Amino acid sequence: MRQADPLVIAHRGAPGYRPEHTLASYRLAIALGADYVEPDLVSTKDGVLVARHEAEISRTTNVGRRGEFADRLTTKEIDGRLVSGWFVEDFTLAELKTLRAVERLPELRPHNTRFDGRYDIPTFDEILGLVAVESQRLGREIGVYPETKSPAHFADLGLALEEPLLDALSVHGYGGPEAPVFIQSFDPANLQWLRSRTGLPLVQLVEATGRLDLVTSTGLRRVAQWADAVGVAKDLVLPRHPGSGTIGDPSALVADAHAAGLLVHVWTMRDENAFLPTGYRRGESPSDPGDSIEETQAFLDAGVDGLFTDQPDTTLEARRLHASGMRIHAAT
Q1: Is residue 268 part of a domain?
Q2: Residues 131, 181: Cα–Cα separation, whole Å
Q3: Residue 313 CB neighbour total at 10 angstroms
């Protein structure tokens, strides 16, 4: 399954430049050259898959300013924690389509707020349609990398994500292990269910403070029973030194995963200082762009097979420079 070049995966589209999970964000990511686009999938009240970062939608839409929906403000337990706000499963698709997307990180990406209110919330079917049209127009294969968000939560509501996801992919012609698609989830049970019903590539996600038993050498061999790759927080590959925030030597994760037959995709590459290790920050403001190209090259040196990114153009340039052998180490 190893590909010639590490994949550049457009994380929620191109959210460094447009509000995340909008067709505008995905379209721009494709135009910038991303290999795959990544939608997070949740379900409406009437069972339609749409792209949002999580079930609660107040940070990514204008729902809090829509008086007719004020009575839907509530608190729920999602994945073991209490969350207050408005939830996608309490809206039909028709209602959700009246809302508009807003920038999730306005303090770090104020330039994106000029697009607030301009885009609606796309369905998974609309995203797959966009990918098909752009693949044909550009003459290159663009992959999709959907994530099932909080699958147990939606299953408990009678809105399970898995079958609608597989149905949509089938309708759009995705079938078999060579299809340009990866399905990802943090939930091993979700992936095990999917493995019993599809040959499409699956990805086990692991947070830096999450199921670390899954990324030991023994755990990775277990994961290989139901997944084709691991999608890991970047600190699990290049750990940061406590206190200083600089990165150290690579962990054994990439070598152990490859030994188990798994690809390794890391998340998330971002340009802003706020997300970068200390040694790659430039300027004083958390929103200033740092040296994410050099950070990305460090992960390429570590042998990863793919990188999630909020700025696909920056990550693509890092990949190009890395392949050429050109390295410019900026002064720290």
Answers
A1: yes
A2: 11
A3: 19
Helix (H) or strand (E) holding 161: none
Q: Which two tokens stand for residue 310?
A: 């909020």
pTM over 0.90: yes
Look at residue 249 and tell me if it is in a domain.
yes
Q: Is residue 65 part of a domain?
A: no
Domains of the chain: total: 1
Angle of the 312-324 helix axis to the 292-301 helix axis, nearest 10 = 50
CA proximity to 265, closest of 233, 221, 223, 288: 233
Helix (H, G, I), strand (E, B) or coil at 185: strand
Residue 71 neighbours by CB under 8 Å, 6+ apart: none
Taking Cα atoms as reference points, which of 133, 144, 148, 194 lies closest to residue 174?
144
Kindly tell me the sign of the dihedral angle through the C-alpha atoms of 7, 12, 13, 17.
negative
Angle at 123 between CA 117 and CA 126, to 5 degrees: 100
**pLDDT tens figures, 172-198:** 999 988 999 999 999 999 999 999 999
- Tell me the backbone φ, ψ of residue 102, rounded to 5 degrees: -135, 160
Whether residue 322 contacts residue 300, with contact meaning beta carbons closer than 8 Å, is answered with yes
Strand partners, 123: 50
Q: Which residues of 163-175 are buried (b: 16+ CB within 10 A; e: fewer)?
A: ebbbebbeebebe
Spatial distance between the Cα atoms of 169 and 299, rounded to a whole number of angstroms:
31
161-172 tens-digit pLDDT: 999 999 999 999
Residue type at 168? A
Asked if residue 191 is part of any domain, the answer here is yes
What CATH number did the domain enclosing 304 receive? 3.20.20.190
In this structure, the number of other CB atoms found within 10 A of the CB of residue 3 comes to: 10
Range of the domain at 37: 7-54+121-324
